[in-house]
Amino acid sequence: MAHAPSDDENFRRVSDYISEYIRENFLDGDPKGELEDDTPLLEWGVLNSLNTARLIAFIREELDVVVKPVEISAANFRDVRSIAAMVARGVRRAA
């Protein structure tokens, strides 16, 4: 009998999915393997206004989570970990 994934497992999956999207769409596949969960996406210039809008659309379309305008902040888009936490809150809100 399969078990339901834990919150930690779900968080890891979301984090991995977001990392993969960022690598493929904003970092040319990240050939140097530099993207970590705590990589400062804003400071490194990975997320600018256009890329943030694209990422928000990806989150809405692929993860079925609506990012509210009030959630679009440097704190929520600082790194992959922050983005995944915001998505997890959105999933809990929708449940």
Automatic annotation (TrEMBL):
SUPFAM superfamilies: ACP-like. Coiled coil: none annotated. Residues 31-86 form the Carrier domain. This is Carrier domain-containing protein. It comes from Streptomyces albireticuli. The lineage of its organism: Bacteria, Bacillati, Actinomycetota, Actinomycetes, Kitasatosporales.
